[in-house]
Write the structure tokens for this entry.
Amino acid sequence: MPPGPDPETRSWASAAVRRFAAVTNLLVAARRFRIVGGDPRDASALHGLLTGLGARPAADHEPIDQLWCLGSPEESTPVIEREADRPRGATLIVIDAGRHLPAVDEDAFGPVVTARPGVLGVPMLSDDVFLVSTGRDPEGDPAADARLRWARRSMPVAREVAAELRDGGLLRGTRIGVAMFLEPKTAVLSLLLRDAGAEVVVYAHADETDDAVAASLRAAGLTVHASSTASLPEQKALALAMLDTRPHILLDDGSHVIRLAHRERPDLLPTMLGAAEETTSGLRPLRVMASRGELGIPVVAVNDARTKTFFDNRYGTGQSTVFAVLDLVDGLASGTHRVRPGPTPPVPDRRASGGSAVPVGGGAAVVAGFGHVGEGVALVLTALGFRVTVAETDPVRALQALFAGHAVAPLADAVQDADLVVSATGVADTIDLRVLRSCADGAVVAVAGGVDHEVALDDARAAGAELRPVGPKAERLVFPDAEGGPVVLDRGGCINITAAEGNPIEIMDLSFAVQLGAVRMLLERGDELERAVVPIDPAVDDATARVALAAFGAHPVPPGLPAEHPADREPDVRTRRFGDPA
């Protein structure tokens, strides 16, 4: 077996891919790429990482989504010019990933414009070609409107579904409350609903509010009840103010506003068509309410749609969580954590600034939970060079983790030698007091997705532990009888949202297309649906997947062609194994 890349090269490749994702908020998986120039060992390491994350090297005749440039500008320029000749609307991202010197001459293509921080447009070359440098800090943040335009161009599936709603006139006279992480992708969803004919009212929790995006939506005429500086009482008042507009449909993330409506505004429920919930953790309490006969509206389980769970939870949360965690760790001072750094500092003028000055390069990681989120987190960690141990209480899922190539162990045992611990259960107190005490000094603890108190910090503080800041959104948990302890990121918050820009745009495009499908369900059949958690119509999944396949450059089977074994055809119960049918 040939040796893999050396730790320094692996660290460089990890930093380059994470910088690309951070500045673009785009997906790695399922994208077609090509690598140009550079040291063959660097190209091999980058190729291995991209394919490990689910990207696909393009064949010679195929168009590409990402062009990774490693060599000299003389090598890159003709390839960029050739690939820029593409159908209108087919985006190409050119990534200057030169390890020591720039691999792309930005001046060779005429004046550039800032499309979003770290992304440059080259209008004289093409409106669909953009340049990203992994070795330079992003330019100043342009107006939020630019970030919304960037998100919108990579959301073709949601745009198409919204256009169908607009053309059908279904949303006229409908008021929709959107209660989600308020960033560019959610803003695009809100504007698509508005353009399709709905009146849209927005709410977001303080730690999930981008104030510039909120201002952009207000300037576009939407009512927004959100502020990043709101206290808990103020957040409740803002959420109630949104409910007091009497929305007919609620789109929620975590079911917090749905539950608030039941507790504080029960008179609103008979006037509502229903709601849609897009998270596993949000559906759990709603199912309990339904079992008790306490759910007063139908709630469409958007989370359970195959085009949501199989992609958002696995590929979206997997990429965004791990990248956000490692980006935060990169900013910590050397010696404050166990996650392994690269062996030598990078060249100063080709890397972003950071407290540790060296990108992380691997180590031992523990993933608590092996549902779709845990599976995705483990996949990304493995691609980045971590040895992954899975802690899973469901024996079938634990067996799945074993078959996926991971070690399996009880959580309190697994964390003792771990450098990184990620909870992916969405269950409170997963990282409980015993687990926290078992963590090695300097182990980094973070939460993917998550619910309140998934890391039992209240119990730790009740036991006398202190949280001591060690860096941005990072605190060391020190117990009275110990000199050190684990480093907890963002107090156990949903790290890909509170410390990054959430899931990649293309992933949220799928999830929001399903949300729009749920809106159609409620508009057409809300009065008929049971006051319970109801499954998404399978036709929504099929339609979403077909549009997405085309958007990703694949060719789906046209709808309407007969299947090999049509579902409505009764199978022949006779057997031919012993001769004539009998």
